[in-house]
UniProtKB/TrEMBL annotation:
It is found in: Cell membrane. The chain crosses the membrane at residues 6-37, 49-67, 73-91, 100-117, 129-148, 169-188, 194-215. PANTHER family: PHOSPHATIDATE CYTIDYLYLTRANSFERASE (PTHR46382:SF1). It comes from the Bacteria. The lineage of its organism: Bacteria, Bacillati, Bacillota, Clostridia, Thermoanaerobacterales. Pathway: Lipid metabolism; Phospholipid metabolism; CDP-diacylglycerol biosynthesis; CDP-diacylglycerol from sn-glycerol 3-phosphate: step 3/3. GO terms for biological process: CDP-diacylglycerol biosynthetic process. The keyword tRNA processing does not apply. It comes from Thermoanaerobacter siderophilus SR4. This is Phosphatidate cytidylyltransferase.
Length: 259
């Protein structure tokens, strides 16, 4: 398993680096594809609890969110999508209220949250600050895993994710904070102070772990272990990007409204 995870990282990371560095339409298209794959995983998971999401509506909505967002405020796009979904109530009796509700939940949870990666990349220093999303998420995950493995004794959320420990959570916070500080030291052109990097690393790690637990909560309620096997050794898109989905808007809000 570890070998497969390493091989996937060796193949996937250069592609990720290239797409983030290029930005623009390449990043937008990549995010649309990842969003659709993630939506498909989420919708398939809900079938286990008797829900039939309107899949095609979710996929089209993901595309609209990305390609109309630059012309119309993202909130307005989401309102348009929601209104269109409500209108389906009147024209399609195949689906019930629960089906429509989880269709909309998937749109908000996946493509809308992923959208903030693009919005971060489009900021003046976006070439650098977008990396905080991945540093916080992946360093939290890595440090939490190894700290929990060697020192974990006290369960963090046993009913949601039995393997996670309080010690692991603390290790994740420390690893994320140190990694963010090292990043801004190596890349001063990011124009982010060490103090701000510490805040991002600390609180971002808490958000990342909440995102991880939320994904675990969804999986447990849908009676599945993984969302899929899209990424060998890592599971599905949502298994690998669960924390990133929450960290992305958090980092954006910091630089858009607090700096």
């Amino acid at each position: 398993m570890l070998k497969t995870r390493v091989i996937s990282a060796i193949v996937g990371l250069p592609i990720l680096f290239f797409i983030l560095i290029k930005g623009g339409n390449m990043l937008k298209i990549a995010l649309v594809l990842v969003s659709i794959l993630g939506l498909n995983e989420f919708y398939n998971a809900t079938k286990n609890i008797g829900v039939r999401p309107v899949k095609i509506f979710g996929y089209v909505s993901a595309i609209l969110l990305y390609f109309l967002e630059s012309k119309i405020a993202k909130v307005d796009v989401l309102v348009i999508i929601t209104m269109m979904l409500f209108l389906l109530f009147l024209t399609n009796k195949k689906y019930n209220l629960k089906d429509y509700a989880l269709t909309l939940m998937g749109i908000i949870y996946i493509p809308l949250f992923f959208l903030y990666i693009q919005k971060l990349r489009e900021m003046p220093e976006g070439m650098y600050i977008v990396w905080f999303v991945f540093i916080v998420s992946w360093m939290t995950d890595t440090f939490a895993y190894f700290t929990g493995r060697f020192f974990g004794k006290h369960k963090l959320a046993p009913t949601i994710s039995p393997k996670k420990t309080i010690e692991g959570a603390i290790g994740g916070i420390i690893g994320s904070t140190i990694s963010c500080a090292v990043f801004v030291w190596l890349f001063p052109q990011s124009n982010v102070s060490i103090y701000l990097s510490v805040i991002i690393g600390l609180f971002g790690s808490l958000i990342a772990q909440c995102g991880d637990l939320i994904a675990s909560f969804i999986k447990r309620n849908c009676y599945i272990k993984d969302f899929g096997n899209t990424i060998p050794g890592h599971g599905g898109i949502l298994d690998r990007f669960d924390s990133i989905l929450f960290v992305s808007p958090f980092i954006y809000f910091i630089f858009q409204y607090l700096i």
